[in-house]
Amino acid sequence: LPVHYIFDYPIAMKLNIANPATGCMKAIDVDEEKQLRIFYDRRMAQEVELDILGDEFKGYVARISGGNDKQGFPMQQGVLVNKRVRLLMSKGSCYYRPRMKGERKRKSVRGCIVGPDLSVLNLTIVKKGEADIPGLTDDESACPRRLGPKRANNIRKLFNLTKEDDVRKYVISRTFTTKKGQEITKRPKIQRLITPLRLQRKRHIKAVKRAAQQKAVQERAEYGRLHAQRVKERRESALASKRRSSRKSSRREE
Asked: In angstroms, rounded to a whole number, what is the distance separating the alpha carbons of residues 250 and 62?
């Protein structure tokens, strides 16, 4: 390790370890440089083996999902430095919301490479080890999601469904009792659900557009025909007036 890694910062870091399978998270404080050394110079989204943290983490593999430095600035993916930098951000940039149209602003963010200047490091378990960790991977402390997915494609992804399966049968609902003692079942309204009524509306919209296009073509053809007729009539009237004027001039000469 470089010398400034050891002497410039106090060696203390908080690890927030999350387990998406159970919905639990556990925070541990690590103050030994030997244990933190495995995270140094690693980038966000890289996987790290957690065997060095203790026997209970034997066999566990976690992915680095983010973190904050000592002053609270968050790590940003894609900034390949191990320090804080100031970036010019615009609409669509991470950690920035413009207040005016076209506004840009320079803000400080922490790079995506892990260093000893971090105070918090967020980890996500991607592989479970040999033994359960109380409060993180055991079944007793599991906190399942109270609400399920709402979008049709997300429901298909959760239950591994095909397009032919009826998504409405797989919506996660919950039943609870009100203060009056009534049992009520609630389920979300499925978004982006393709139903026969939706297909009928799309066909109707297409038919309306097609009719409008055909009407515009017919009106354009009718306008072209009428315009040509008016031009012909104007030309004939101009020729007739020219003939009359030539006749009058010839009579005067006689």
From this structure: 108
Query: Rounded to two decimals, what is the model's pTM?
Result: 0.62
d(CA 64, CA 48): 8
**CA distances in angstroms from 11 to 30, 64, 79, listed in the order given:** 8, 19, 23
Q: Hey, which bits of the chain come out as E strands?
A: 13-19, 24-30, 47-49, 61-69, 84-89, 105-110, 118-127, 174-177, 183-186
Give the mean pLDDT of the chain: 89
What sign does the dihedral 203-207-209-213 (CA atoms) show?
A: positive
- Interacting residues of 93 by C-beta distance below 8 A, sequence separation 6+: 87
Between CA 110 and CA 118 the distance in angstroms is: 9
